[in-house]
Every structure is written in C-alpha cells, then in structure tokens.
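Support case: adenosine monophosphate complex. Customer-provided input:
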Amino acid sequence: MKRFFAVFSVIILVLTGCADKGTGGSAQAKSRSVFAMDTYMELKAYGDNADAALDRAVSRINEIEAELSVTLPDSDISRLNTSGGEPVEVSRDCAWLISNAVKYGGMTGGALDITLYPVVKEWGFTTGEYKIPDDARLTELLSNVDYSAVSVNDKEVTLPENAEVDLGALAKGFTSSQVAAILKEDDVRSGIVSLGGNVQAIGSKPDGSDWRVSVRDPFAPETDMCIVEISDMAVITSGNYERYFTGEDGKNYWHIIDPADGYPADNGLVSVTVIGADGLMCDALSTALFVAGKDSAADLWREEGGFELILVTDDAEIFYTEGLEGKFTNVSSMTTEVISR
Ligand code: AMP
Ligand code: MG
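Agent response - structure generated as follows:
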C-alpha cells in the first residue's frame, strides 16, 4: 500500500566531521539560511574566504529569484506570461534556462514541458487552493501546452499567444550550480548547499573524503532511504510526496504533471534522484524522468552520459544505475536492483 506524508524537502544532508585538510584555511564551517523560491536553503562553506563567498552566493540567489519568480509582476517570467505572443527581452539567466528547458523537453520526448504552467495552476499547486480540474478544462488548457513552440533568440524569448511558462522544474538545480560556481570562484574548496533538499557539493569534505548525502524514503519521507557518497556533484530528487493533496475522491494528486493528459504523472515511479555534475541537467531530468517512467529513464541514461539515477517504483523497489556502485548504501528495507548499460 502506498503511504504519503506531507514533507516538502527531499534529501537531508549528512554533514559529518570538520577536520582541517584541503579547505584553504579554517576548518570552521560558515553557513547561511535563506528562504527563497518558496524553499528553505542551507549553504555551508569552509575556508578563509567563506563568509564573503556566501554573501555573494546569497545575493546571486536573490537575483535569480527576482528574474524567475512567477509571482513578482516585474520578473522576466511574469513579463513573458503577459506578453500576448510578443517577443520579450529577458535576463541572460532566464534565456539560458528557457533554452535548456526546450532542449531537455526535446531530449525527454516532451516529458519536461515548461508550458504546463496553466495546468499546474488549475490544480492549485501554485496557490495551495487545490482542486481536481474537470476534463474539459484540462483539454482546453492542454491545447496551449507545447514547449517546442517557445522560441529563444539570444536574450529575446517569444511564447505563443496563450502560453505561460514556469521554470520550477529546473530553476533550483541551476541556482545550486550557480552557487557552487560562485563559492569556487571565491576560493571555497569545500562546501555543501541544500536548496529545499536538492543538494550540491563543492569539492569534498574538509578531510578530503566524499560528502554523504541521504535521499529520503518516498514512502516515509521523514526517514532516509539511502546514502550516496559524492564530491563536486548535485543530488536532485523529484518525488510524489513533496507536494500533493488528497482529493474528495480520497486519491492523492501530486505536483508533477504528465503533459500527455494534464494529470499527475503516474507511470510507476514515486521518486527519481539524478546525480551529476550539472545541477540544471539533474533538476530538469529528475522531473522529466519522473514523468517518463523507469524504462524510459533507464534508456535515456544509457543513451546520454553525465548522470546517474536512483529510481523508486510504486511497488517499493529501488533501482540505481551501475555508476553508483560502491557509492550507494541502502538503509531502507526495500530491495535494490542495479541498472546496467
Ligand atoms: P521538481 O520539484 O523539480 O520535480 O519540479 C516540479 C515543479 O515543476 C512543479 O511544482 C511544477 O511547477 C512544474 N512541473 C510539473 N510538471 C512538470 C512537467 N512535466 N514539466 C515541467 N515542469 C513541470
Ligand atoms: Mg526538477
């Protein structure tokens, strides 16, 4: 039987030890907590320059939020969503994210579709005023959903007249990569950030060993399911327990939508974790592969390099890709199986 719990973050950090090796100075962690993008963010960095680096990282987070927010009326996204089909000049970040969203939309056969926003709104996932839309309304809204109709020309973006976008599926991964880049530029050689449970490591732990990042059990999200050992990588999870409501029919409806029918994606997976060096890619793929299902996810992993996967099926089995062997520890009672090339 499926169990669901109202927990929003996906992964908790296992932060251990702070010995003094390879940190470029002080082994004392400096940290910041930020609430942005509707998410609690924790940033930790080691080294002499950590404080200044973290301040720059926090400014960068605020800058990205101001550009990409769907609620701030002057954000790039709000201007796009009210543009009535006219081209809009947006920030470099926004143009970059939209062109990547279109690319990953294509790579995943349309499983990632940023133009689903009107459908996501109709379910109430943006406001918390949840409802099950009627089918006629979904059909009407889906007629304007098509990521491939979005065009990006340098910093100029054009949406079809009735289209609206949101970058919630990939913005946090992009942001965590940007934070990592800033910290590194500022001489931080060891750090770790969690943006609502999406983790990005900068280097390894101060003692030179890998960071140990735990991934939540989608059937009991307050407990860990597994631990992965990583350095310089992002660990990003999409799960059906992160944001959902129970309808009047007693069924649960979650926030990751299948563009094929406008309903919460229900293709056999309850969580997808993507691990790789490129946070934006990990975030885009975590959402898309949740929609695509296990076999398509494994096929994409075989075709494209640059990431590893941990998939949890709705019948409580864990599948992980062979690149994680030796780096993966199951701490749940679920069975595991390795996906090979
Ligand atoms: P994530 O937590 O990264 O999986 O992103 C989920 C968020 O992306 C949702 O809350 C929606 O705002 C949006 N979204 C839902 N389904 C899709 C989809 N199929 N493609 C793109 N964005 C989506
Ligand atoms: Mg995502």
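Residues 169-170, 238, 283, 286-287 surround magnesium ion (ligand 2) (CB under 6 Å).

Case will auto-close in a few days if no follow-up is received.
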